[in-house]
Give the backbone structure.
Amino acid sequence: MGFLDQLKGISNIPENKLHIIMGFPGSGKTTLAATYPKPMLYVQIGDDGGGIVMKNYSDNDIKYLLLENDDKGSVYVKLMSLLDELKASNGAGFKTVVLDAYSSIEEIMVQSASKIKGKALSFDERGQISQAMISLRDVIVSLSKNTPTIFVEITHLKQVDSTDNITGESTIRYIPKMSQGNGNIMLERANNVMYCARKVVTGDDGKPTVKFLTYIGAHPNIDTKFRASAGQNKLWESKGIYIDNCTYDKIKALNENKLDEKIINVIETSKIVDDNNTTNPFEEKKTW
């Protein structure tokens, strides 16, 4: 049978259900992840997760697993084994799997290898870890396509300087707290990418208040995108929006092109105190 005999309608293309939630510590990443469909498997990577907010839900809604380096194996090997089990069981009945914090895996691997070696890793040794992270990423993407489960990767951020090779202009970008190549490729593979932040917002009464906001849509300093969407001509994708009290249901509404700003709680950029022409819109206030 030739390739032309295998053609299918475009509706048959596998849906990539990999979502990435990025942000600095205490910005509401895990709170957002907790609103995803249940039953959920929450996987804490080392001691870097913020899973305490998950305790607002019942044991029937969320199951918890801690993965850390010990004499039984490394975080990486344990996570790969878990993913094998999820593949064999078609997601094991979980509607969502949350990995918190995914960006810690590479850091744990580097620290562990350096400790064993007794000194800093060589370029080739770091390359081997990067290659392992690529394999891990590919397994997760495959599972997000071939099982009914949504995979949510929570990642911390780091700031990098990016220089345009043509103009020579330097700009600040925020990427996952891992090697730049792996972080960028991971963002490319994801369907939905969201940025969580604490922002000072001016209310209708003129008084400032701190809000936990989620940014979705185009921005020059950070990759935030929505690929899986049935609707067309979504203006919010080109301008980007801040959502107050963001939840999975609001994300789903945006994906389905059902933007009701009153229901989704879109915050006007003009009301965000630290969003102006002289500061980076992702530079967070340090006053609290």
Q: What stands out?
A: Residues 215 and 242 are 4 Å apart (CA to CA). Confidence is low (pLDDT under 50) at residues 275-288. Residues 123-146 form the longest helix (24 residues). The helical segments are 29-33, 75-88, 104-117, 123-146, 180-189, 235-239, 248-255, 261-264.
